[in-house]
Design goal:
disordered C terminus; about 150 residues; globular; 4 helices; 5-stranded mixed beta sheet; about 15% strand; alpha/beta
């Protein structure tokens, strides 16, 4: 019998990175698998991940945990900056409220709170993780497509 939604996820727990508190929970299925940390972006919260996807990952041997990044969900919300939302922040020039390194440290804090020494974060932490997986990531300008294996001139 499959667990109800209420019992599919463990209780909300908290990790700390300095003054930032990070809300996280772990799937009750597959808890003995290889750790997999799911992190959303652009202000979405951890509940964005569909339960079906998380259960499918657990069935593939992963112990799935998810967390709210800073400024998202139940985690610490930092004071407002001149830019009103994450999308406009991509295009506006302003002081950094926090860095990508701060956010990577947040993920490490969550894994530490889970008691995991090495895991597979869905994101980017190559010094710390066994392997990484990124989705919907755009590191820079899109390269020009090659036509039939030939480079454009």
């Amino acid at each position: 019998m499959s667990p109800t939604r209420k019992h599919l996820w463990g209780p909300v727990r908290w990790a700390e990175n300095g003054a930032v508190r990070l809300a996280f929970d772990a799937l009750t299925e597959g808890a003995d698998g290889e750790p997999l940390l799911l992190a959303t972006g652009l202000g979405a919260n951890r509940l964005w991940f569909p339960d079906g996807l998380c259960r499918m990952l657990a069935a593939q041997g992963f112990a799935v945990a998810r967390y709210d990044q800073r400024d998202g969900g139940e985690s610490t919300h930092l004071p407002a900056t001149p830019t009103r939302n994450p999308i406009s922040a991509l295009f506006a020039k302003r002081e950094e409220a926090y860095t990508a390194e701060d956010m990577a440290d947040d993920a490490v804090a969550v894994m530490d709170a889970l008691g995991v020494a090495v895991g597979t974060p869905a994101g980017r932490l190559p010094r710390w993780s066994r392997r990484t997986t990124r989705g919907a990531a755009a590191p820079g300008p899109r390269p020009k497509p090659h036509l039939h294996g030939r480079r454009p001139r």
